Amino acid sequence: MAVENLTSLISALRSETANASITPERLGSLLQKMVDAIKTTSDGSINIVCQAVNDELRVKGASALVEAGFVPVIFRYSCKSNHLTDYKKKTKYHGPKKRGWNILFSTKFAQVKSKDTISFSGRGKKGDLTYVYSTSPWNLLHVSTILTAYGDVQSVKVAWGKRTIMAAKGRRFKFGIGFAKPNADRTFNPKDLVTNIAPFMVYVRAEINRGKTTVGFCI
Q: How many Å apart are CA 135 and CA 55, to the nearest integer?
C-alpha cells in the first residue's frame, strides 16, 4: 500500500474537522477508509522506504503513520551466537549463527520530526537514553577515533554488539526502521509491526590527514 493514501486521508480528516464541517457519516467513512488502507495489502503491512537527504534519514509518509497512532522502531541487523546443548552427551556447543533484525534500545529511541525526518535519542555516559533527540547518525553508533601525535587518524573503533570493529578504512552498518502499534509499557512485540522493516545504512570512514571521522546515512 502506498503511504500517500494514508497521508491524503489524514489530511482530509484534519481539514474537515478543523472547519467543523464533517458529518458523522463522513467521519465514519474516512475512518473506515483509513482502516481499509492499512489492511488491503498483499502481506498485511504498509510498505515504507528510507531516503538519505542532507545528512538526515527520511521515511516518506512517516508523519502520517505517527498521526495514525503508530510509533517508529529502529532495528540493527546483527549476527548472534547460537548456544545449544546436547542433553544426552551433557555437552554444550555452538550451532549456526543467528542473523536478523534486533530492536535497538526501545520504542522510545526514535521520533518523527517535520518533513518525515527521523530523530534519535542521545545516550548518557552509561549508555542509557537521554531522550534528547537529534537527526545525527552519530546517535546510532558508538565511535572512537584515536589520533597520532601529529593529529592524523590512527584508528577508528565502532562498538557493534559485543564486538569492536575497526573502521578507519570505511565500513557500513546495517539498520532498519519500522512502525508499530504502541504498547502501554512501550515494549515491542514483532506482531505489532504494521509496516515492513525498511533498511538503511550508516557509514563510518576516517579522513586520515584531517584528523577526523565522518559518519553519515546511505541507502
A: 8
Put residue 138 in one of left, alpha, beta given phi > 0 → left and psi -120 to 50 → alpha: alpha
- Nearest alpha carbon to residue 173 among 144, 200, 214, 201: 201
Across the range 133-152, mean pLDDT stands at 94
Query: At 128, phi and psi to the nearest 5?
Result: -80, 155
Indicate the average pLDDT of the chain: 83
Element (H, E) at 214: strand 212-218
Cell of 1: 500500500
Contact present, 73 and 120 (Cβ < 8 Å)? no
Cα(114)–Cα(134) distance, integer angstroms: 12
Query: Which pLDDT tens digit goes with each residue over 34-65?
Result: 555 554 444 557 889 999 998 999 998 899 89
Report pLDDT for 32: 60
Supply the DSSP symbol for 186: -
What is the C-alpha separation between 116 and 203, in angstroms, rounded? Answer: 21
Asked if 79 and 157 count as a contact pair (C-beta separation under 8 A), the reply is: no
Q: Specify the pTM.
A: 0.75
